[in-house]
């Protein structure tokens, strides 16, 4: 899989490179274009993808503490994730029953194994499963599937001795529907579709015509790089591919062919196979997959660090808002929510350059426990908009009482939150007098004037 190995290399090279950023971007973009194209990823797709990456790389500013090169890696990662379906997980539940799935793919890609895995997966969801042995080419295909079906508790249909795959598929689907299967999975023969094998693509078309499957599932071996695009396209032209399974993700290969298959068919990857056993099937998760594709153990920690620094940046903005403006419960709410994500306040402030000087004045606030933060947030959820905007209204006992009842806490706890508000307000008044802090915010461009 030279092409996508190069993708990993391009990222590695990028992180080590120095020099003017624009030149780095240019060279990096050229590297990943070359890598993707040599892996047979559709050229138009490559250019669309790299155009987006380049635009974002030049336009976006990383959060403080993240280099622009690291940001470029994150942008690449995000754009690839989008390509693989983004944050929505594939829908694996059949929309109705009975539901017929037809497996297709080249020889040895893992079709039969995947039939067994799918049968087990769907059985554990409570479906009745039937499988059909419509591979009349591979010696022993009938017995292989029969054994698998027994193992996972699926109904089985086959016609040993028959060479008519189309008839077997048709009879099998009909029979298994009668026997009450909710999901019927049809195993077919492996084929490449080149030269003499054109006939096998024709057979595939005829099977599809005979059984009108609800979903044609293309099985792709993760190690198959270069040919994937072309092959997936041929299969897709014979019978429209509805979904993709990438097998052998447990091997050394990183699944580059999958990118091409997705590009060639427009179908989504639904599952990945991670071993020979019937249990070794996972629902496809774009993020995890792309991290594997980019092949960096470091990628995860890099992304985590960036995310954290982004949260710190958000938090900084809130603090700046607090210094500049009126303190309300709304602002405190935001601050507490962010603090909960970031961990102890003291640590957070240490992470913001130049803020360690504020630590003493924030010491009291730094001691709030996670539990208290959660409680305070729920108390604020019981306040009216008016109260959120005008904390001083809590001077009225009746309001404290109402809020305490509404959020199921003691009145003393509501008062404690109110006192926290007063402390923060006082702290901010002090901070406003400190020129160094104000200058810092002004420099960050976070404070008007
Ligand atoms: N490591 C690993 N091996 C797998 C995986 N899926 C399948 N295999 C192995 O790949 C080989 C081929 O699997 P089959 O399921 O027979 O492949 P097929 O596509 O049905 O092959 P044909 O019927 O000949 O076209 C077997 O040795 C399987 O055990 C996987 O996810 N990981
Ligand atoms: Mg097979």
TrEMBL record:
Record-annotated Signal recognition particle SRP54 helical bundle domain positions: 3-84
Gene Ontology MF, one: GTPase activity
Family annotation (SMART domains): AAA, SRP54, SRP54_N
Protein localization: Cytoplasm
A GO cellular component annotation in the UniProt record: signal recognition particle
Keywords: Cytoplasm, GTP-binding, Hydrolase, Nucleotide-binding, Ribonucleoprotein, RNA-binding, Signal recognition particle
Known EC number: 3.6.5.4
Family of this protein: Belongs to the GTP-binding SRP family. SRP54 subfamily.
Record-given protein name: Signal recognition particle 54 kDa protein
Organism: Pyrodictium delaneyi
Encoding gene, per UniProt annotation: srp54
